[in-house]
Each structure stands twice: as structure tokens, then as C-alpha cells.
């Protein structure tokens, strides 16, 4: 019981930190201004980690690896804690354990990224229906646009209604199912 509670706390804290780091990565990738409440929150919660890492981790083709790499490392640590609590750390050889932790950490980062995209797409749809000119709407639209654009090329608006968020959310749900199956397979190896 106590171990399960500890894992839940570590998983939640790690997921939140990785999510904010991924948000920073996407905002820099899409060149979205950080001069808004979302951007200021992201910078305030990640500067303590990203700024020192930029001295050692250079960007790659305009991508901020100093934001992406710690998101992955946090998830590797979360996977380590989960495996430690269930008692698999001393049982498996260290090399395969390391590979499983790295792979599972990568799958967890992908899962968090998919949830982040789902949240942004839902928020953009709600803003478009309720208050398209809200102060945060521009930032949310800019975050959602690169993910909705490929669907808008294929799916036309029907009667003035944009169905691309529904199609994207359906694809994201399928991807989450695939990731869950891959994660269970990978953790079963350890």
C-alpha cells in the first residue's frame, strides 16, 4: 500500500515535470513566444534545470535538446522507482535493466507528449466554440496548429464545422493504446 502510494506520487511529479519540459520543447520548436501566462509558467518551472544543461547539451537543428533530454531522464528515473518498488532491480542483470529503463522512459515521454497534444487540441476546440479571442487562445491555437494541419489537408470543414480535432484525438487514442501495449511488453522483459 505504501509502495503504491509512493509510486503514484513519483509518477505524478515526474509526469508533470516531463510534461512542462515537453511543453517548453514544443514552444521553442514552434517559436511560440514565452511572453504569455503559459510561457511564463513553463519558463519559471523549468529554468532551474534547462539553463544549466544548455552549457553541456547543445541544440540540434533548432531543437532544444536541453529541454527534451531531461524529460526523458526524469521518466527513466520514474521507471527505475517503479521497478525498484516491485522488486525487479536486483533480479535482472544490470545491462538488460538499463535497456528496459531507457526504452520504457522513452515510451513514457511519448505517452506524456500524446496527452499534452490531446490537452492542447481539446483546449483549442473549446476556445474556438466558447471564446475564440480569449487571451490564451492564440497560444493554444499556435501549439495545436502543427498537429492539426496534416488532418486539415485531408478532412474538409463540413457545414463550417472543423472535424479535424476529432480525427486527431481518435488517432492519438490509437497511439496511446499501442504505447501501452509496447510498455507492458517492455516491462515484462525486466
pLDDT under 50 segments (min length 5)? none
Shape: globular
> Could you tell me the strand content as a percent range?
under 5%
Specify Rg, calculated over alpha carbons: 19 Å
Count up the helices: 6
Q: What's the count of strands?
A: 0
**Amino- and carboxy-terminal Cα gap:** 22 Å
Structure class:
mainly alpha
Helix proportion: over 70%
Number of domains: 1
Order of helices and strands: HHHHHH
Sheet with the most strands, sense and barrel status? none
Which secondary structure elements does this structure contain, and how are they paired or packed?
Elements: H1 2-29, H2 37-53, H3 65-85, H4 94-130, H5 137-154, H6 164-189
Description:
There is one protein chain. By secondary structure, the protein is mostly helical. It has one domain (2-189). Helices cover 77% and strands 0% of the residues. It contains 6 helices and no strands. It is globular. The model has no long low-confidence stretch (mean pLDDT 92).
Summarize the structure.
With 190 residues, this protein is mainly alpha-helical. The chain has helices at 2-29, 37-53, 65-85, 94-130, 137-154, 164-189. Helix 1 (2-29) packs across helix 4 (94-130) and helix 4 (94-130) runs antiparallel to helix 6.
Keywords:
190 residues
